[in-house]
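Q: A reviewer asked whether we had any structural model of the full assembly, not just the individual parts. We don't, so I'm hoping you can provide one. Inputs are below.
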Amino acid sequence: MSGQLTTRSIARFMMAPAVIFLLGWMLAPLITTLYFSFKKYLPLRGGDLGWVGFDNYIQFVTASSFWPSVYTTLVIVVSVLVITVILGIFLALLLDQPMWGQGIVRILVIAPFFVMPTVSGLVWKNMFMDPINGILAHLWKFFGLQPLEWLSQFSLGSVIMIVSWQWLPFATLILLTAIQSLDREQLEAAEMDGASSVKRFVYIILPHLARAITIVILIQTIFLLSIFAEIFVTTAGAFGTKTLTYLIFQRVLESQNVGLGSAGGVYAIILANIVAIFLMRIVGKSLDAKAT
Amino acid sequence: MRKLISIIAVVFTFTASVTFAENLTIATVNNGDMIRMQGLTDDFTKKTGHTVEWVTLEENVLRQRVTTDITTKGGAFDIMTIGMYETPIWGANGWLVALDDLSADYNVGDLLPAMAGGLSHEGTLFAAPFYGESSMIMYRTDLMAKAGLEMPAAPSWNFIAKAAREMTDRANDINGICLRGKAGWGEGGAFITAMSNSFGARWFDEDWNAQFDTREWSDTLNFFVNMMTDAGPAGYATNGFNENLSLFQQGKCGMWIDATVAASFVTNPKDSTVADKVGFALAPDNGMGVRSNWLWAWALAVPAGTQKVEAAKQFIEWATSNSYIELVAANEGWANVPPGARTSLYNNPNYKDIPFAKMTLDSILSADPNNSTVDPSPYVGIQFAAIPEFAGIATDVSQEFSAVYAGQQSIEDALAKAQAITNDAMEAAGYR
Amino acid sequence: MARNIQNQRKTINTLLAWTLGLLIFFPVLWTILTSFKTEAQAINDPPLFLFFDWTLENYAIVQDRSDYMKFLTNSIIVAGGSTLLGIFIAVPAAWSMAFLPTKRTKDILLWMLSTKMLPAVGVLYPIYIGCIKLGLLDSRTALVVILMLINLPIIVWMLYTYFREIPSEILEAARMDGASLWKEIAYVLTPMAIPGIASTILLNLILAWNESFWTLNLTAAKAGTLTAFIASYSSPEGLFFAKLSAASTMAIAPILILGWFSQKQLVRGLTFGAVK
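A: Here is a predicted structure for the entire assembly that you could use as a starting point for your response.
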C-alpha cells in the first residue's frame, strides 16, 4: 500500500517540471491574448485605445474572409494528413525491408524536413511550379501538354503538395521507428500459418502502428493548423489559400490591429480544440491500448 | 592607495576612450544597394570609429520587424531602413528622431524635393533617402523595331497595349508585356493603384468612401486584364518584381513597366541576355494629365528611443552623402551608385550619360505624391495611401484582384468585394 | 532457391526505395546543384541539370557578406539547448505518464498539446514586450527558453509513445530482481528507448533549427540564427536563386550530417526476442 502511494507521488514529482513550465507558457499568452482581444489596440494609432467588449470578435468573424479561411485551413490539414500518413506507412514499410544502401535512402527520404519552409516554398514556386521556367512546365511540354499554372489554377493543391512533401519525412520517421519495434516472431509465425501479406498487414502491422499513427496525426495537425511560410512566399494568401493563421498574421502585422488579431487567435484556439476533439474521437482509443 | 588610484585612472581613461566609439545596429532590406553599403562599412568605421552590425532581411519581414520594434519601443535597432509609407506616419507619432540638424556638408538642399517631401512630416525631415525610385517602361528595342513601331518618350496606354499585342509571339516564347500581378499591397497592388491613377481613379473620395464602384476602376481592371490575357505571360497572377525581372532578362518580355532600379539589372550583361537591347520611356498615361509612375524611397531613420543618436546620425549622414556616392562610383562604377536621391547626381557628367539616368530622373520628377489622382483625394501617396490602415486593406484588395488575373473571379465581383472590404475597414477605423 | 528469391526481393526493394527516395530528394538536390551555378544560369530555360559552369562564387559571396559562423553557433546553441533542456524535463514526465498512468494522464497529454494551439503571431506583441521588460531581447537565452516551451509538448508526446512500446513486464522483472527506480531507468529503460529518444531528439532539433517566427522576431544582430541568415538572402530585388541555394545548403548541411550520423540509432530495433 505505502509502495503505491510513494509511486504516485514520485510520478507527480517527475511530471511537475513539464507541467509547471507548460502551465506558465500557456497561461501567460492566453491571458494576454484574451486581454488584448477585448481592447482596441492599434500600435500605429497610439496603442491602447480602451475596452471595446466583443467588438473585435464580431468584426473578425463577420469579415468576408473568415469562413473561407476556416474552410481552407481544414482542407489543407486534412489533405496533408491523409497524404502523409498513407504514403508514410508505405514508405516506412518499404524502408524496413532488406535492401542495399538503406542508410542512404533513409536520409534521402528525411531530407525535405531539413529544409526551411521559406526556402521550400521559394524553390517549389520558382524552380518547379513556374509555368514558364519551372521544371514541371518543361516536363509537361516534353509530353506535348500545356504547362499548368500551378499556383494560380491549383493553388490549394499546390500548397498541399509542398506541405506534404515537407511533412512526409516526419510521418515516415515516426512510423519507421515504430515498425522497428514490431515483433518479428509474430509476423513469421503468421506467414508460416499461411496468412497473405495483405492479411499480415491489416491484422498485425496496422494495429501495432496504431499508436504511432495517432501521434503522427495529432502532432502534425497542431503544426499544420499554423503553417505560414509556405503560403506567404508562394501565393501571398491569394486564390483561396488564406488560412486562419494567415488571416491573423494580416490583422496583427499588416493592419497593425493587435486587438483584432488577438480575437482571431482565440478563434484559432477554438478551431484547434474542435479539430483535436474530433480527432481524439477517431483515434483516441489507440492511446489507451496496451502495448503489444 | 596609490596603486588603487592609478588603476582607477587607467580604467577611467580606457572607458572614456571607448565610450566615444559606438556599436550601431542597423536593420535594412537585402537589396543590392544596401548590400553594397554593408560592404563599404569599413569606410565609415575609419572615418568615425563607430562599428556597425548589420541585420538584413527581406522587405516584408523587415517591415514587420521594425514596426514591431518601434511600436513597442524595443530599442533593438539604432538605425532603421524604412520607406515613404512608414516615414510620415511614424514621424507624426513622434517615433523618429528629427533630422533637422544635419551638417552643412551634407547639403540637405541637394536632396530631390520629391524625396525630401515624401520623407517629411509637417516640413521636418524624418528619414534620409538612401535611394529613390519611380517606375518606367523598359522595352526591347529590337522587338519594337521588328513590329515596325517606335516608342514615344511619353506613350499612352493605348499605344502600349497595341505595341504589346504586336510584339507578342507565343510560338517563340515572347510575351508582349510583363507586369506585376502578385498579391500584396507593395507588389501587384502598388502597380494597379498607380495605373488606376492614370485612368482617373482613386482609392478614396474626400469623405474617405472607397471608390471601387466607379467606372474608372472598372476601366482600369478591364484594360489591364484584356491586355495581359492577349500579351502577358502565363501565370502572371503570381508574378512580382523578381519573376518579371527573370523573364525580361531571359528575353521573354517585349516590355516591362516597373521600378526604375530595375534598369541597372536589365542592362547588366552579366545577368541579362538582352542587356544591349533595352530602351526606356515614361510610364504611360491615358490623356487625363496623371501618369502611372509611382514614387518610392528607401530611407534611413533613427528610432526615438535609441541611446546612440549622435552616432546614428553620423551613419545616416555618411550613407546618404555625396561622398558615399563617389565612394561607390570609385569601387563599382557609376552605374551602380544609389539612384534617385540627390539632384547633383543627375548633373554629374559621369552619371548623366548612363542610358537610364535621364528617364529615371524624369520619372521621379513627374511623380507628385500630394497630387497623385485626377480628382482630389484626401491621402498622400501615389501607389499607396499614407494611412496606417492601408497596408492591411490593400493586401486584401490585391488578393481579390489576383484572383481575377488567375481567371477565378470576375472583375465585377472583385470590385464589389474590394468596395466592401475597404469600406468596412475604414468604418471600423473611424474614418467614415 | 530461397537465396535467389531473397535476392530478388532485395533487388526490387532497393530499386523501388531508391527511386522514391531520389524523387523525394530531388528538390533538395536541385537546390544544392543550383548553389554552384551563376545567377543567370540558375534561371536558365531549359533548366540546366549537371552541365553548366560549376562555380563557387555564391559560397564566396555568402561567406563574405554574412557571418555564417555566428549564425551557425547561435543555431546550434538555440536548437541544441532547447532540445536538450526539453528532453531533460520531458523524460521524467513521459516516463511517469507511460508507466504510472492515472485517469488524468490522457487529459494532461491533450492539454499539453493544446498549448500549441494559439498561433505564435497572436502573441507576438505580449512576448516581445515581455522580452523588452526582462532585457532579453536579442538574446539566446530567450530563444532557448521559448523554443523549449513550444517543443516540449511534442517531445513529451513522442517519448510517451516510445515508452509505451516497452512492455512493462521487462521493467517489472528488473524491479523484482531488486533494481531501484533509478537503476531501472538507467540500465533497463534507457537502452531500450534509445532509438525512440534518438528520433525524438533529431526531429525536435530540426523543428527548432527551422523555427523561423521567434528566431526572426526576437533577434537583431547578436542572437540571429540560420533562419535570419536565410532571410537575408530570400527575395531581394534582383536575381537571388543561386545565392539563396548556397545559403540554404550551408544552413541544412550541419543537420544533414547530424542526421546521417544518427542513422545507426534510428536503425537499431528493439530486441524483444531476448526477453521472451
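A: Points you may want to mention in the reply: The longest strand of chain A covers residues 47-51. The radius of gyration of chain A is 23 Å.
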